[in-house]
Design a protein that fits this description.
The protein is mainly β. The chain has two helices and eleven strands. It has a single domain, classed as Beta Barrel (OB fold (Dihydrolipoamide Acetyltransferase, E2P)), CATH 2.40.50.180. It holds the Pfam family CheW.
Protein backbone atom coordinates (compact mmCIF):
# COMPACT_ATOMS: atom_id res chain seq x y z
CA UNK A 1 0.00 0.00 0.00
CA UNK A 2 2.96 2.31 -0.06
CA UNK A 3 3.02 5.02 -2.71
CA UNK A 4 -0.67 5.92 -2.36
CA UNK A 5 -1.17 9.18 -0.64
CA UNK A 6 -3.85 11.69 0.00
CA UNK A 7 -4.15 14.21 -2.78
CA UNK A 8 -3.63 11.84 -5.71
CA UNK A 9 -5.33 12.88 -8.93
CA UNK A 10 -8.64 11.06 -9.41
CA UNK A 11 -8.82 8.79 -12.45
CA UNK A 12 -11.96 10.52 -13.78
CA UNK A 13 -10.59 13.73 -15.21
CA UNK A 14 -12.66 16.48 -16.78
CA UNK A 15 -12.31 16.16 -20.55
CA UNK A 16 -10.23 18.91 -22.10
CA UNK A 17 -12.33 18.96 -25.24
CA UNK A 18 -15.93 17.96 -25.98
CA UNK A 19 -17.13 17.42 -29.55
CA UNK A 20 -20.36 19.38 -29.75
CA UNK A 21 -22.87 20.75 -32.22
CA UNK A 22 -24.31 24.22 -32.68
CA UNK A 23 -27.93 23.76 -33.73
CA UNK A 24 -29.29 26.86 -35.56
CA UNK A 25 -32.65 28.27 -34.44
CA UNK A 26 -34.53 31.32 -35.71
CA UNK A 27 -33.53 33.24 -32.56
CA UNK A 28 -30.10 31.83 -31.75
CA UNK A 29 -28.50 28.43 -31.43
CA UNK A 30 -28.38 25.45 -29.11
CA UNK A 31 -25.13 23.85 -28.00
CA UNK A 32 -25.28 20.10 -27.40
CA UNK A 33 -22.70 17.31 -27.13
CA UNK A 34 -22.43 15.25 -30.34
CA UNK A 35 -23.81 12.17 -28.52
CA UNK A 36 -27.10 14.01 -27.90
CA UNK A 37 -27.93 14.17 -31.61
CA UNK A 38 -29.42 10.93 -32.92
CA UNK A 39 -30.25 12.01 -36.47
CA UNK A 40 -30.99 14.98 -38.71
CA UNK A 41 -34.08 14.37 -40.82
CA UNK A 42 -35.88 16.33 -43.52
CA UNK A 43 -38.59 18.74 -42.48
CA UNK A 44 -41.96 17.00 -42.32
CA UNK A 45 -45.36 17.97 -41.09
CA UNK A 46 -46.11 16.55 -37.66
CA UNK A 47 -49.39 14.87 -36.78
CA UNK A 48 -51.39 17.57 -35.01
CA UNK A 49 -51.59 17.35 -31.25
CA UNK A 50 -54.94 18.15 -29.67
CA UNK A 51 -55.04 20.98 -27.12
CA UNK A 52 -51.23 21.14 -26.96
CA UNK A 53 -49.08 23.98 -25.62
CA UNK A 54 -47.97 26.35 -28.41
CA UNK A 55 -44.40 25.02 -28.37
CA UNK A 56 -45.61 21.40 -28.89
CA UNK A 57 -45.95 21.37 -32.68
CA UNK A 58 -47.25 17.81 -32.93
CA UNK A 59 -45.75 14.35 -33.26
CA UNK A 60 -43.53 12.64 -35.80
CA UNK A 61 -43.09 8.96 -36.55
CA UNK A 62 -39.42 8.02 -36.33
CA UNK A 63 -38.04 4.46 -36.05
CA UNK A 64 -41.27 2.98 -34.67
CA UNK A 65 -41.56 5.81 -32.11
CA UNK A 66 -43.86 8.82 -31.77
CA UNK A 67 -41.70 11.84 -31.06
CA UNK A 68 -42.91 15.25 -29.92
CA UNK A 69 -41.78 18.03 -32.28
CA UNK A 70 -40.78 21.04 -30.21
CA UNK A 71 -40.27 24.70 -31.16
CA UNK A 72 -37.57 26.14 -28.91
CA UNK A 73 -38.38 29.63 -30.15
CA UNK A 74 -42.00 29.42 -28.96
CA UNK A 75 -40.90 27.84 -25.68
CA UNK A 76 -38.82 31.00 -25.12
CA UNK A 77 -41.85 33.21 -25.74
CA UNK A 78 -41.04 34.15 -29.33
CA UNK A 79 -43.35 33.69 -32.34
CA UNK A 80 -43.40 30.44 -34.34
CA UNK A 81 -40.64 30.76 -36.94
CA UNK A 82 -41.40 30.44 -40.64
CA UNK A 83 -40.61 26.94 -41.85
CA UNK A 84 -38.43 27.35 -44.94
CA UNK A 85 -36.87 24.85 -47.32
CA UNK A 86 -33.57 24.88 -45.41
CA UNK A 87 -35.27 23.80 -42.17
CA UNK A 88 -34.32 20.42 -40.75
CA UNK A 89 -35.42 18.39 -37.78
CA UNK A 90 -32.92 17.26 -35.16
CA UNK A 91 -33.81 14.10 -33.26
CA UNK A 92 -32.24 14.53 -29.83
CA UNK A 93 -31.76 12.04 -27.04
CA UNK A 94 -33.42 13.10 -23.79
CA UNK A 95 -30.57 11.42 -21.92
CA UNK A 96 -33.06 9.01 -20.35
CA UNK A 97 -32.87 5.96 -22.61
CA UNK A 98 -34.95 3.83 -20.21
CA UNK A 99 -37.65 6.50 -19.73
CA UNK A 100 -40.98 7.01 -21.44
CA UNK A 101 -39.51 9.56 -23.85
CA UNK A 102 -35.97 8.61 -24.92
CA UNK A 103 -36.05 11.03 -27.90
CA UNK A 104 -37.75 14.20 -29.07
CA UNK A 105 -37.42 16.39 -32.15
CA UNK A 106 -36.56 20.07 -32.56
CA UNK A 107 -37.01 22.23 -35.67
CA UNK A 108 -33.72 23.71 -36.91
CA UNK A 109 -33.27 26.69 -39.21
CA UNK A 110 -30.36 25.26 -41.18
CA UNK A 111 -27.57 22.74 -40.79
CA UNK A 112 -25.81 21.97 -37.49
CA UNK A 113 -22.15 22.91 -37.15
CA UNK A 114 -19.57 20.71 -35.46
CA UNK A 115 -17.49 22.54 -32.83
CA UNK A 116 -14.88 21.51 -30.30
CA UNK A 117 -15.58 22.94 -26.89
CA UNK A 118 -12.73 23.52 -24.47
CA UNK A 119 -13.00 25.08 -21.00
CA UNK A 120 -11.03 28.13 -22.22
CA UNK A 121 -13.46 28.84 -25.09
CA UNK A 122 -16.68 28.41 -23.13
CA UNK A 123 -18.00 31.14 -20.86
CA UNK A 124 -21.29 31.64 -19.07
CA UNK A 125 -23.48 34.59 -20.08
CA UNK A 126 -25.95 36.56 -18.04
CA UNK A 127 -29.56 36.02 -18.83
CA UNK A 128 -32.69 34.56 -17.36
CA UNK A 129 -33.20 30.98 -18.54
CA UNK A 130 -36.53 30.36 -20.23
CA UNK A 131 -38.36 27.05 -20.25
CA UNK A 132 -36.12 24.33 -21.68
CA UNK A 133 -32.91 26.29 -21.18
CA UNK A 134 -30.19 25.11 -18.82
CA UNK A 135 -27.54 27.79 -19.37
CA UNK A 136 -26.67 30.74 -21.60
CA UNK A 137 -23.09 30.44 -22.86
CA UNK A 138 -20.62 32.05 -25.22
CA UNK A 139 -18.40 29.76 -27.28
CA UNK A 140 -15.41 31.73 -28.58
CA UNK A 141 -17.60 34.83 -28.30
CA UNK A 142 -20.58 33.24 -30.13
CA UNK A 143 -23.82 33.19 -28.13
CA UNK A 144 -25.58 29.84 -27.59
CA UNK A 145 -27.90 28.11 -25.15
CA UNK A 146 -27.40 24.72 -23.56
CA UNK A 147 -30.83 23.06 -23.52
CA UNK A 148 -32.24 21.42 -20.39
CA UNK A 149 -33.06 18.05 -21.94
CA UNK A 150 -34.60 16.55 -18.81
CA UNK A 151 -36.91 19.58 -18.42
CA UNK A 152 -37.95 19.20 -22.08
CA UNK A 153 -38.63 15.52 -21.55
CA UNK A 154 -40.69 16.33 -18.44
CA UNK A 155 -42.73 19.05 -20.21
CA UNK A 156 -43.52 16.74 -23.15
CA UNK A 157 -44.50 13.87 -20.85
CA UNK A 158 -46.66 16.20 -18.76
CA UNK A 159 -48.59 17.27 -21.87
CA UNK A 160 -48.95 13.65 -23.04
CA UNK A 161 -50.27 12.53 -19.64
CA UNK A 162 -53.06 15.16 -19.75
CA UNK A 163 -54.65 13.99 -22.96
Amino acid sequence: MSGTGVGTVPTTEVPQEVSSLLLPLADGQLLVPVETLSEIIALQSPVSAFDAPDWYMGELHWRELRLPLVSFEVMRGNPMPTLRSNCRIAVLSSGNSEGDLPFFAVVLQGTPRLVRVTPEELAGREGECAMGELMHVALSGEAAVIPDLSALEEACLEYRSRR
